[in-house]
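hey all, quick one before standup. I had two proteins in the batch that finished overnight and I want to keep them in one place so we stop losing track of which output belongs to which input. First protein below, input sequence then structure tokens straight from the run.
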Amino acid sequence: MAGITTTESQKSKSSTKKRLQKVRLNRESLETETPFLPPASCLNHVASFIVSAKTESPCIHFNPVGARIIKEAFLLNKIRQRILDALPIRLRFALRYIRQRILDAPPIRLRFALRYMKIHRRFSLLLFPTLFTEKLMLRVAIDRRDILRQMADKLEMRCYVENKVGKRYLPRLYCVTKDPRSIPFDTLPSKFVVKANHGSHFVRVVTDKKTIDVQSLVSECQGWLNIDYGQCYGEWGYLGLKRCLMVEEFVESSYKDKQGIPADFRFLVFDGQCALISVDIGWPPSARRNLYYPPWEPVPVTCIELAPGYSPIEGRLEPPADLRAMIALAEDVARGIDFVRVDLYSTSCGPLVGELTMTPAAGMRRFPERKFDRLLGKKWKLPKEFSERPRAAFHST
């Protein structure tokens, strides 16, 4: 009897161990199914890096929008994990399945039409778009051209610009790596910029490398690599991009903020014709922005809603000496594309391309003045596949 009891006990322990392993594997699979939420350990390093760098490393400059995205992801991850831990494993799978079926039920154009109506507070099914904001949201919803992914990937974007206008219009590239620990900090100059290729706002500007905490910066970069930026706002161009880090030269410019970070000159170009210039100086919460037409005529600040942390530039801002060259470069780079935003820097050696953006602000920036929204919308000629048969495209996925 003792032998039988021992055997049954061993079998019971073995089966219990197998069940625990199965539960552990299921839990791990659940955790890996949300790629845009970084592991809590990485985000803890990021949070500590943000606090320490603000107090101890004044020569590291943050884009607070990127920090906000990571903080929000950290909070969502923490709340999600607590809820999942309180539920049985089968119920977790059932809830995940039901949620996905609900999200996938409406046609994709309808999903983004609902988002458009919520953000812009006007009715539109994106069937016959005439406004700029409608056409931009339509692009986010159904445009699946390869050019969107090429522009979303900052490394591929450099190849595009180099083939289009030449390498001399790009900042110098020091390093490309998938492992932040392999960045050669010892051989880098005193000033440089670290950015991720696969998203927006993942950038750190270093103006004095002697003051940085290398380990904290490495942890910060690892946090970027753990985020699938395409999952954040539903931008297909960013979804599933191969992720890497880029280290570029620090661009010196006479147009800069108090920390010496160069101003962004953002050109809205429609099929090779510049229609609007946005000048951004500094980063939130003390960022400043003005809008101009190409002849450097100011645009009323009420035409486009300023993002949180932005305010109008006080006083008159003189146009850069190389404004004509900047407009010509933006139009050359954008020629052949129905719409793209070209970000340039003004330097003593001529303009440099910083970024090309196909879906600015993921189509979520509001235009309070409808006339201005319609004016830009008239300049945007949509490709035939998006303008001739809108009802057929309503059911595209």
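OK second protein, same deal, sequence then tokens:
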Amino acid sequence: MVRRVYCIRKVTGWSHSWEVVKLPTETFYNLPEAKQQAIIEAAVAEFAASPYDKASLSKIVAKAGIAKGSMYQYFENKRELYLYILDLAYAQKKRFLKDVFDQADDFFATLKRYYRRSYLFAKEFPLYHKIINHYWDYCAEFEEEIRTSRELRANDFLTMLQQAIENGQVNPELNQEAAFFVYHSVGKELIDNFIELSETDQAQHLQFIDAVLDVLAEGLQIRKE
């Protein structure tokens, strides 16, 4: 009998919430490390190239050099393999962003750190970034998980925003849900539309991220003294 291990994973900081996740079987961990890595790399490549519902398990096993039947000794099904790979992607992102919220007393400075670091994550781990983006695209398989994740992301932001309001950094009359929508939408565009920049242009884009966030922080309207 194949024994499966379970864990509950929850990542905050506008990242991800988890259902109960089935880890690979012990059979997978008994494989030589090179074979484990070959399976992971093949799955990462396929799930980055295609969203979950269009990703091909046949392509994954062919690239990994294993029989399709063998994959079911390591993962119960395609969904569990996908969740494992998604978990790897978010674990890497969490490590990459680990100190962003250490000093969250300045709301606007924290946002700059978050979006700058998220952009650098996308540059350094483009396949993981694509997998994470695919997750947020509509897929009936994960409709409930995505809805819960979006609520948690919004709550994380709104908690920070409320603290900033109480600290006198943000206008208390601001529509908070609109603020989340604007920051989330603009931040996504600042990352996804500039991934292909050269290393030379990357530094300039980080400054551009700061400039765009300054516009959001300060607004366009001239303030009357």
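Flagging for whoever picks this up: The longest helix spans residues 143-166. The first strand starts at residue 6 and ends at 11.
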